[in-house]
Amino acid sequence: MVDVFISYSRENKARVADIAAAVAAAGYDVWWDAELPPHRSYGDVITEKIGNAKAAIVVWSQASAQSEWVRAEADVARNQKKLVQTAIDDVMPPLPFNQIQFADLRDWRGEADHGGWRKVLMSLEDLCGREAVTASTAPVARAPSPSPPVDRQPSPAPQKSSFLPWALLGLAAIAVALLTWKLMQPAPAAPIAEQADKGVVSDTAKAQGSSGDAPAVENGPAEAFTLAAVIDDPDGFTNIRAGQSTQSAIVGKVLEGEKFLTYRQSGPWWRVRKADGTAGYMFRKYIRLVEGGTTDNSTSLPDGPMPTGIGGSGVVIPDSSERLLAPADIANFGLLELRVARNEIFARHGFRFKDARLRAHFSQFDWYRPSTDTVQLSAVEKANVALLKSAEAAVQ
Questions:
Q1: Residue 310: how many other CB atoms lie within 10 Å
Q2: Dihedral sign of CA atoms 29, 30, 33, 37 in order
Q3: What is the pLDDT of residue 380?
């Protein structure tokens, strides 16, 4: 069984090779073109490969949008709820796939922080059930492309290609690189449980104890930055680094008095996140947790009229459960707006709020139907909750 199946048009083979290489570098097993057994039909093999994959990336382009084979493969993936759509041309996915979100990779050249690529990795993490390997921001090296490419038409007797030896060499090189990378990394931090608390549904940090009890809510790929902190550094600032070493590149800095988010971790380096979305590692001894962290209580909502949302719906950000938000999306929000926007993610799942103002606010809208005290968030929702919480810490 592979993790990811890639559907594409042969005219886009070179570009798809970059995508396949990046997916493999992120730690996923990829099938995007392989030697077909001579006794099997193309359609049977493709159906089997999609069925065995955990996720199916469809690469839409002007050519693939016209391909019956690509549309058929996308339809199989959609029916199996494993479809991840991307676009590398100025083209909308054909009907009915234009009703589903897709990641725009037209200007992606292998950057790890590209918005469209982050959406792809978020979907893969959700569907494959594990995090992507952290990659560098340098453009990815192109994976060896199959030669000759598999024809997108059924053939009674496909000819044996020379792809397999080259693919094995490419995969071997990737495997060696990944093994080297993993051996150089320190032990991972203890996982953090994300759950709703008794106020405005913040993410209560709960490091796993020695008893090995499972967290109340299943961990996801998105980190639960749940504790507010400031720096305690005589220099008046502390650097945020890309890795757990003073030799790692500096990706940002925190000034004295500036709030940021973190969570309880093991080891001398902790992951932190600023309100502008900058994330990286900071030396633990310079981090001072703010009393109470970011845990809200029943009196923590700021004064003021509750936002009515888009068109009076009570929803501040309608697509926050489907789209990965960026700091620019919430740059003009006040504290009350940020907290309601965060809570509405939980409200969509029927969370029963203990806070009277929140309960009264959401209960006036037909779409809110309280039914549960715990919710399971998707990877996108967890990331958006973390971003909103980070912004709240910055304006408090």
A1: 11
A2: positive
A3: 86
Q: For position 308, what pLDDT does the model report? A: 76
Question: What's the pTM value of the predicted model, to 2 decimals?
Answer: 0.38
pLDDT at res. 223: 58
Q: For residue 371, which phi and psi values (nearest 5 degrees)? A: -150, -10
pLDDT of residue 228: 81
Distance CA 302, CA 335 (A): 7
Collapsing DSSP to helix, strand or coil, 272 comes out as strand
Taking residue 172's Cβ as centre, other Cβ atoms within 10 Å add up to: 10
pLDDT recorded at residue 174: 55
368 CB contacts (<8 Å, ≥6 apart)?
314, 347, 350, 362
How far apart CA 31 and CA 227 sit, in angstroms, is 40
Distance CA 380, CA 221 (A): 9
Percent of the chain with pLDDT over 70: 70
Which residues of the chain are modeled with pLDDT < 50? 34-40, 135-139, 141, 143-169, 176, 180-222, 292-299
pLDDT at 33: 65
Structure tokens at 256: 């004295």
**Whole-angstrom Cα distance, residue 282 to residue 230?**
11
Q: What angle do CA 358, 364, 370 make, to 5 degrees?
A: 65
Fill in the DSSP letter of residue 346: H
Question: Which two three-digit tokens encode residue 259?
Answer: 């709030």
The pLDDT of residue 355 is: 84
- Give the per-residue pLDDT at 300: 59
**H or E element at residue 241:** strand 237-241
Residues contacting 354, CB < 8 A, separation 6+: 198, 199, 298
Q: Which residue has the tokens 């709960």?
A: 206
Tokens of 380: 């996108």
SS3 of 201, please? coil
Helices 335-347, 356-363: inter-axial angle, 10-degree rounding: 70
Distance CA 118, CA 116 (A): 5
Sorted by where each starts, the structural domains of the chain and their CATH numbers stand as 4-153+161-184 (3.40.50.10140), 310-395 (1.20.58.1690)
